[in-house]
Specification:
Number of helices: 2
Radius of gyration: 21 Å
CATH architecture of the largest domain: Sandwich
Structural class: mainly beta
Strand content: 35-45%
Helix content: under 10%
CATH topology of the largest domain: Immunoglobulin-like
Number of domains: 2
Shape: globular
Low-confidence stretches: 8-22
Distance between the termini: 60 Å
């Protein structure tokens, strides 16, 4: 198929990915990929649960959801990059690391695996038919050799405190570890009984982030605890609770 055809499908999938709550027939086995540097390759299992064959294109990008497959400059090869999967059948995607300069050796790096599911054209063509492609994106965590600690240690040893922000107060979190931490929920529970839901995002290794607090007045010097759910290597949530630092 031509590059123009795939660019058009990619454009359609980007719109669908961002705006519709529909599901593809091709199901991905897992919600994230962990790639230890010692492995020659890792695999991701795909299963076609639909009633029709599916054509799948896969590629990895460095974090731009609007980037095209041909524009991705990443140290990975996906094999096969394009494959047909029959109904009820499965296919393993193999990811192989190809070393290149600039990849940190002292911390984990994150990339994104894109899986584009293209359904077949109907057997009877109509003038009003629209063909939609479905795209899934999974985080790919690349782990260099001999990183200190573990992903579990990193998630359990975060440091939390309240800080002033441009809009009032924020919950600041510091990650001293070499691994990313992905949150499911974050809740600030104060000693006086008040609680605040926190808008969180993925926390990079050896970094600090400020999470905004809504309607949080009079929190300066407040005491309390942070209750958060982080996501482990298998996509499961782990409940953690820690004291708020002064």
């Amino acid at each position: 198929m031509s590059r123009r055809f795939w660019s058009f499908l990619f454009f359609c999938s980007a719109i669908l990915f961002q705006s519709l709550g529909v599901q593809a027939n091709v199901v991905v086995g897992g919600t994230r990929v962990v790639y230890p540097a010692k492995e020659r390759e890792v695999s991701v299992r795909l299963t076609n649960q639909g009633a029709q064959p599916a054509l799948v294109q896969a590629w990895i990008d460095a974090g731009n959801p609007d980037g095209k497959p041909d524009d991705a400059d990443v140290p990975f090869i996906v094999m096969p990059p394009m494959v047909r999967i029959d109904p009820g059948k499965g296919q393993a995607l193999r990811l192989a690391y190809t070393p290149q300069p600039g990849i940190p050796k002292d911390r984990e790096s994150v990339f994104w695996l894109n899986i584009l599911d293209v359904p077949p054209l109907p057997s009877v063509q109509t003038t009003n038919h629209m063909q939609l492609a479905f795209r899934s994106r999974l985080k790919v965590f690349f782990r260099p050799l001999e990183l200190p600690g573990s992903a579990i240690d990193t998630a359990e040893q975060l440091h939390w405190r309240l800080v002033k922000s441009a809009t009032g107060m924020a919950l600041q979190v510091r990650n001293d570890g070499a691994f990313h931490v992905s949150f499911n929920t974050v809740l600030l529970k104060l000693r006086d009984g008040r609680s605040f839901k926190v808008h969180s995002r993925m926390l990079a290794p050896r970094s600090t982030a400020d999470f905004a607090l809504e309607q949080a007045q009079g929190l300066s010097g407040a005491e309390g605890r942070v209750v958060y759910e982080w996501i482990n290597d298998y996509g499961a949530t782990v409940l953690q609770e820690t004291r708020l630092a002064p």
